[in-house]
């Protein structure tokens, strides 16, 4: 039983990276903006967070630097697609390619760095609890942050006036504009906030989950997070559930290898991406369900007075 809870804890840790990034992308899409640049933003934020910890020794500073990096890139993306009316999909792809290339170039000096000893770790209060204690002690603090973010978004979207305005901007920006709401500015704020969450996910990956820096270390997590928003039909609770499911699939490869299962290591490594494709294919078989749940103006530019 103790081993079971340890496996659950490692799955939750793995899923938290996806959950935080996907919640950021969900915030964008609720406002009607599709950002395909999550992979690039996460990589740049991972590098920014790792470099900050190397030079300061502060894990919190590293997470903050990652959020700032993600927010800055998202702010540029927002200006391009919201005010300059560039194509959202092409601009997002360009941002992703830029992030991959820039992080590889700028991160060369940090590939040999090690965070061991640079951050002070404290013993968990759960360590001595029978059965479930070791599992709870294995949980990263960011797991609770991801859970709080999901609950906060549910409250924000469906219990606050600001959340209602944000959803109205994503559903019918013309009507929101007619009521006097600054549609472009609201969309830009949502893009920046979503980018900061993608940055938080990237910084968590490089500073806590796998405390090292390697080129392309996100390994497609930004794309999986993007797929998660569709998988979850744009609901925060379902995003969290889907992220943990993908986290469990990711950890399954290590569990099966540890059990000596005679399956190719390459096949096990592709399990999370195969699961993503299978889920999207299954969801796509019911386009009416997707149209019913997705924001009506997602991916569509808004031109005031047009």
Please provide a written account of the structure.
The chain is mostly helical and 306 residues long. The protein has one domain: ABC transporter involved in vitamin B12 uptake, BtuC (Orthogonal Bundle), CATH 1.10.3470. It has 14 helices and no strands. Helix 11 packs antiparallel against helix 13. The longest helix is centred in the first third of the chain and has 29 residues, at 2-30. It starts with a helix and ends in a 13-residue tail after the last helix.
Topology:
Elements: H1 2-30, H2 38-56, H3 59-83, H4 88-106, H5 133-138, H6 141-159, H7 161-171, H8 173-178, H9 183-209, H10 221-231, H11 236-258, H12 265-269, H13 271-284, H14 287-293
Helix pairs in contact: 1-6, 1-9, 1-10, 1-11, 2-3, 2-4, 2-9, 2-10, 3-4, 3-9, 6-7, 6-11, 10-11, 10-13, 11-13
Please name the defining characteristics of this protein.
ABC transporter involved in vitamin B12 uptake, BtuC; mainly alpha; 306 residues; globular
């Amino acid at each position: 039983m103790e081993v079971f809870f340890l496996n659950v804890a490692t799955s939750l840790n793995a899923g938290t990276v996806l959950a935080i990034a996907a919640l950021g992308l969900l915030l964008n899409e609720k406002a009607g903006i599709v950002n395909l640049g999550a992979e690039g933003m996460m990589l740049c934020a991972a590098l920014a967070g790792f470099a900050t910890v190397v030079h300061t020794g502060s894990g919190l500073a590293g997470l903050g630097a990652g959020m700032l990096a993600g927010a800055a890139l998202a702010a540029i993306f927002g200006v391009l697609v919201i005010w300059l009316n560039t194509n959202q999909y092409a601009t997002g792809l360009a941002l992703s390619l830029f992030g991959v290339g820039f992080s590889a170039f700028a991160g060369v000096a940090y590939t040999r760095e090690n965070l061991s000893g640079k951050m002070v770790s404290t013993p968990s209060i759960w360590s001595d609890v029978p059965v479930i204690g070791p599992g709870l002690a294995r949980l990263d603090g960011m797991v609770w942050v991801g859970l709080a973010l999901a609950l906060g978004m549910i409250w924000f979207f469906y219990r606050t006036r600001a959340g209602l305005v944000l959803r109205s901007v994503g559903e019918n920006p013309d009507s929101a504009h007619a009521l006097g709401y600054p549609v472009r500015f609201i969309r830009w704020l949502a893009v920046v906030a979503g980018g900061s969450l993608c940055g938080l996910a990237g910084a968590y990956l490089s500073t806590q989950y796998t405390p090292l820096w390697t080129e392309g270390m996100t390994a497609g997590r930004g794309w999986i997070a993007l797929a998660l928003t569709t998988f979850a039909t744009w609901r925060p609770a379902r995003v969290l559930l889907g992220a943990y499911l993908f986290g469990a699939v990711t950890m399954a490869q290590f569990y099966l290898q540890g059990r000596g299962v005679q399956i190719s290591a390459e096949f096990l490594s592709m399990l999370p991406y195969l699961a993503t494709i299978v889920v999207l294919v299954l969801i796509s078989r019911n386009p009416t369900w997707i149209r019913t749940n997705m924001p009506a103006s997602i991916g569509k530019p808004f031109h005031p007075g047009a």
